[in-house]
Amino acid sequence: MMKAAKMLLFASLTGLLVVTGCSKDNASESSVGSSVKHQIIGIDPGAGIMKQADQALKDYELTDWKVVEGSSAAMAAALDKAYKAKEPIIVTGWTPHWMFAKYDLKYLNDPKGTFGKDEEIHTIARKGLKEAAASAYAMLDRFEWTPEDMAVVMSAVVDGKKPEDAAADWVKGNATKVNTWVKDLTPEQGKKLKLAYVAWDSEIASTNVVKTVLEGKLGYKVEMLQVEAGPMWAGLADGSADAIVAAWLPTTHKDYFEKYATKLEDLGANLKGTKLGLVVPAYMTISSIEDLKAK
């Protein structure tokens, strides 16, 4: 009897371990909603990706789901916490972003195309900048780099380096590329410029690099204006900002671009190969936004 009781106790404990172990890792398609409280962790409410995420809830009939507003920093912190514990989480994500180098992540397939095709990041100048600051205008028009370039700066910042120092290191280490941006341009010592940007890691990286080059190579005095997307575009249109290197087109900032297009000048893409969508850790078994629908 004693031996049988011990075996029964062992079997009960084993069953308990199996049940509790399955509640945390690799949420199945039928339980993923409850495992993340039917929440998608988003960023600042003015970001275009938030509008797309809300539209995804409609397109995929995810009536019980909610996109949680916050910031890119808060989203990254939530992802880090969940990833370390191997817990399920769904976030709004985009590339280039340092989190894809730090974690093993994947985009959920988007068969309805809610998040659109791959985008580009454009440089936009206010009307009249070419006449007011010719060398700055020309440098901004020439500015172009790659997702790999941007990742170097972003990763350095995530590892604890100040953005301005990470940008300066990149500029110093990529003299050949930087020189093509400023070749034969006349310095305009002390002339003031204002660059607006949103507090995304990608835009912090690019704006700091441009500031470093404009100041170090062409003598400008650059002020960086950190704002949300709406004020960034409005400030550019009304002249309180001179330029941005943070326009995600044709989808994310489409509404702003169309609203202010007559007051702006699109200098073209400074980075190609971006992507937006819903992102999950690779250890989660789901593969598509359709998998989020309750079964």
UniProtKB/TrEMBL annotation:
Q: Which domain of life is it from?
A: Bacteria
Location in the cell reads: Cell membrane
Q: What is its main location?
A: membrane
Q: Which residues form the ABC-type glycine betaine transport system substrate-binding domain?
A: 30-172, 191-294
List the GO biological process terms: choline transport; glycine betaine transport
Q: Determine if Phosphoprotein is one of this entry's keywords.
A: no
Would the keyword Membrane be found if you checked this record's keyword annotation? yes
Species this chain originates from:
Paenibacillus oryzisoli
Q: Which InterPro entries match?
A: ABC_Gly_betaine_transp_sub-bd
Q: Can you provide one Gene Ontology molecular function annotated for this UniProt record?
A: amine transmembrane transporter activity
PANTHER family assigned: GLYCINE BETAINE/PROLINE BETAINE TRANSPORT SYSTEM PERMEASE PROTEIN PROW, GLYCINE BETAINE_PROLINE BETAINE TRANSPORT SYSTEM PERMEASE PROTEIN PROW
Query: What PROSITE patterns would the database entry show?
Result: PROKAR_LIPOPROTEIN (PS51257)
Q: What is the name listed in the Swiss-Prot or TrEMBL entry for this protein?
A: Glycine/betaine ABC transporter
A GO CC term assigned to this protein in UniProt: ATP-binding cassette (ABC) transporter complex
